[in-house]
Design goal:
3 helices
Amino acid sequence: MDLPQLLESITPQICESLKRAVELGKWPDGRALTAEQKALCMQAIIAYDQHKPAEQRTGYVPPKTTACSPPPDEQPLKWKN
């Protein structure tokens, strides 16, 4: 089985299991993930999420919209020496 076929066979349940393994650093049976396994799991999760809208992807951080953010039409001051 090649990589594209493997990624196509990932189900939502498998993806959640991979996410949980990365979060905890171990497989459901208690064995620790190696650094290589963790990296491969993260790559599979990212590849699986590619078909989702950006807001639903793993690791999505919405744009900052707080009162501290200047409105887009304001320009910061430039001090001269």
